[in-house]
């Protein structure tokens, strides 16, 4: 959530800065100046009677640009806990299964996930990840960990890539040193 607030803040600053840049620095620019000399002759054997010098200046104003942003929608898939284990191998957390078909959210969907973890006695490392049960593979980039945290600590992933199709997913946990690891809860965040 903090990341989205920071991104919105930075985009707002850029938008305001861009507006002032256009207002201050994008005045009409002189593109070309042409000097046209026109000499009018009365007769070929007579010297020129009159000469005129015409200066024409052409100004070009930059065309305004508009940027259209598609209004994003966000869907959350909650993953309920708490679930604990002392396993040093990946443990399938019961009750955390859900189906997901990324085609339901369009080609440009952006999916992240967040989870809260803790390790007993605040000593050791707790791991969690998403596992694609249908394709029997861990979701690339979904593994998160907390180190020496006895209170539930929120962790956030980057963008995740899921395999096509309506696949079954679940949360997996493990402990580095057999101290009890607790998954408090989590959720998928799907922006499309």
Helix run count: 1
Task: Estimate percent helicity.
Answer: 10-25%
* CATH fold-level label of the domain at 74-191: Jelly Rolls
Structural class: mainly beta
Largest sheet: 6 strands, antiparallel
Assign the CATH architecture of the domain at 74-191.
Sandwich
Q: What is the 3D form?
A: flat
Between the first and last Cα atoms, what is the distance in angstroms?
Answer: 16 Å
Number of strands: 12
At the first level of CATH, the class of the domain at 74-191 is Mainly Beta
Low-confidence parts: 30-44
Task: Note the beta-strand portion.
Answer: over 45%
Radius of gyration, Cα only, in angstroms? Answer: 32 Å
The mean pLDDT is: 81
Please trace the helix and strand order, writing H or E for each element.
HEEEEEEEEEEEE
What does this structure look like?
The protein is mainly beta. The chain has a domain at 74-191: Jelly Rolls (Sandwich), CATH 2.60.120.1340. It has one helix at 2-25, and strands at residues 29-40, 50-60, 74-85, 91-92, 98-100, 110-119, 125-132, 137-138, 144-147, 153-156, 167-175, 181-191. The strands form 3 sheets. Strands 4, 5, 7, 8, 9 and 11 form a 6-stranded antiparallel sheet that branches. The chain starts with a helix and ends with a strand. The relative contact order is 0.22.
């Amino acid at each position: 959530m903090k990341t989205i607030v920071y991104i919105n803040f930075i985009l707002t600053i850029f938008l305001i800065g861009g507006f002032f840049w256009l207002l201050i620095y994008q005045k009409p620019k002189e593109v070309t100046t042409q000097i046209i000399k026109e000499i009018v002759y009365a007769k070929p054997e007579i010297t020129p009677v009159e000469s005129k010098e015409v200066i024409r200046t052409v100004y070009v104003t930059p065309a305004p640009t508009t940027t259209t942003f598609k209004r994003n929608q966000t869907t959350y898939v909650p993953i309920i806990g708490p679930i604990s284990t002392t396993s040093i191998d990946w443990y399938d957390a019961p009750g955390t299964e859900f189906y997901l078909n990324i085609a339901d959210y369009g080609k440009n969907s952006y999916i992240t996930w967040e989870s809260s973890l803790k390790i007993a006695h605040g000593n050791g490392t707790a791991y969690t990840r998403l596992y694609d049960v249908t394709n029997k593979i861990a979701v690339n980039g979904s593994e998160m960990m907390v180190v020496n945290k006895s209170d539930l600590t929120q962790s956030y992933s980057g963008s995740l890539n899921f395999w096509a199709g309506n696949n079954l997913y679940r949360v997996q946990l493990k402990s580095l040193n057999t101290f009890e690891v607790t998954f408090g809860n989590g959720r998928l965040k799907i922006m499309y």
